[in-house]
């Protein structure tokens, strides 16, 4: 790869604009704001407060619903990318909930869901 400039001085937006495909399916990628008080989830194009249990439980439901809605696209490159983004978003939200559960009362949560193993939880909820 001679003469290909992988400059580390490029802006993030420049890097995204030069990709052959957009990593989050054409929208901004999942990300936290600067103080990590909110998370933007690419799979559902919404933001949520990271310390609000009800907000995050709602986000988990929305991401799972989005995944189910995109299952018809499974098997295409772009469809599989969208499904993968849903899975990653689900895992991130589940881990945020797991962290919150470590110092909040169980009363704050809607049930006794174990968020420590997001992949297993995802599969369990998907089969319901």
Supply the key terms:
128 residues; single chain; flat; 4 helices
Q: Helix-strand pattern, N to C?
A: HEEEHHH
Structural class: mainly alpha
**What is the topology, as strand order, of the major beta sheet?**
1-2-3
The CA-CA distance between the termini, in Å, is 49 Å
- What average pLDDT do the residues reach? 86
Tell me the radius of gyration.
Answer: 17 Å
Proportion of residues in extended strands = 5-15%
- Main sheet? 3 strands, antiparallel
Tally of alpha and pi helices: 4
Structure commentary:
The protein is 45% helix and 8% strand. By secondary structure, it is mainly alpha-helical. The termini are far apart. The protein has helices spanning 12-17, 53-70, 77-101, 118-126; strands at 31-32, 38-41, 46-49. 23% of the residues are buried. It is built from four helices and three strands, in the order αβββααα. A three-stranded antiparallel β-sheet has the order 1-2-3, covered by helices on one side. Helix 2 runs antiparallel to helix 3 (77-101).
Topology:
Elements: H1 12-17, E1 31-32, E2 38-41, E3 46-49, H2 53-70, H3 77-101, H4 118-126
Antiparallel strand pairs: 1-2, 2-3
Helix pairs in contact: 2-3
How would you summarize what this structure contains?
The protein contains four helices and three strands; from the N terminus they run αβββααα.
